[in-house]
């Protein structure tokens, strides 16, 4: 998906704006529609596991094979044999590990009471339950909470961490606790709305894939006048 950022108002004093303002500008710069297309919330959950360490195009291929085999629900995956699941998800790579993780997640969802029970559970409790599942780490849990369950949770992936660190919002922040720090900062900066946090995640990924890349293309960046890394040369 190639989207170029739209014009972002420049802060004439070159001062890093409040995070709320930066988040709003970033979302406005990358208008997106339905960042995570899926027919069911379980499909989003499965995608969150399958996307670990691979490209989304590979995940789409694996999900299509699961759908064609009528194996894209918690019930179907939890009763599917590990061998068959491994074959179905092979395009996503690491199929032995991912089949086990997918099976764990599906079995958890069946045992937990499905989406009806999820809807009755508080976000912090749900996050703790997801993190208890073998193979579900913070990034996968938060992707499930935000995109599958519609909760106001931010996926503080490596892109978000890199972008905020380069801009200067994480100066003095301990690297070890960076995931939770970035998650808390950005959840607080967009008034806790699930859709806005989805939009912010999408905008962060697009900006980091297209402009703030491993070797950043600062001359194209609408935030260059306030960015600490760019200003530091
Ligand atoms: S100015 Fe450069 S380093 Fe800073 S956010 Fe933009 S692309 Fe990244």
Poorly predicted runs are none
Class from secondary-structure proportions: mainly alpha
* Distinct bound molecules: iron/sulfur cluster
CA radius of gyration is 19 Å
Chain-averaged pLDDT:
92
Count of helical regions: 13
Provide the CATH superfamily of the largest domain. Answer: Hypothetical protein, domain 2
Q: Estimate nothing, just give the exact number of structural domains.
A: 2
Q: What percentage of residues falls in helices of 4 or more residues?
A: 55-70%
DSSP strand tally: 0
Sheet-strand content, in percent, reads under 5%
Given the C-alpha coordinates, what overall shape results? elongated
Beginning-to-end CA distance, first to last residue: 30 Å
Q: How can the largest sheet be summarized?
A: none
- The CATH topology annotation of the largest domain reads as Endonuclease III, domain 1
Supply the CATH class of the largest domain.
Answer: Mainly Alpha
The CATH architecture classification of the largest domain is: Orthogonal Bundle
């Amino acid at each position: 998906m190639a989207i170029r950022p739209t014009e972002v108002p420049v802060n004439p004093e070159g001062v890093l704006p409040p995070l709320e303002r930066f988040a709003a500008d970033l979302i406005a710069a990358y208008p997106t529609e339905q960042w995570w297309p899926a027919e069911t919330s379980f499909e989003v959950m499965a995608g969150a596991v399958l996307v670990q360490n691979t490209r989304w195009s590979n995940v789409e291929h694996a999900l299509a094979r699961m759908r064609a085999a009528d194996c894209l629900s918690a019930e179907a995956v939890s009763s599917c044999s590990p061998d068959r699941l491994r074959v179905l998800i092979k395009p996503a790579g690491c199929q032995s590990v991912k089949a086990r993780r997918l099976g764990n997640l599906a079995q958890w969802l069946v045992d937990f009471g499905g989406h009806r029970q999820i809807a009755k559970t508080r976000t912090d409790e749900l996050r703790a339950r997801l993190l208890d599942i073998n193979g579900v780490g913070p990034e996968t849990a938060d992707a499930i909470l935000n995109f599958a369950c519609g909760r106001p949770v931010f996926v503080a992936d490596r892109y978000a961490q890199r972008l905020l660190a380069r801009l200067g919002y994480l100066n003095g922040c301990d690297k070890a606790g960076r995931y939770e720090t970035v998650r808390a900062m950005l959840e607080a900066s967009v008034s806790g709305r699930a859709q806005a946090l989805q939009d912010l995640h999408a905008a962060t990924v697009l900006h980091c894939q297209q402009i703030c890349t491993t070797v950043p293309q600062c001359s194209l960046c609408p935030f260059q006048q306030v960015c600490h890394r760019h200003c530091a040369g």
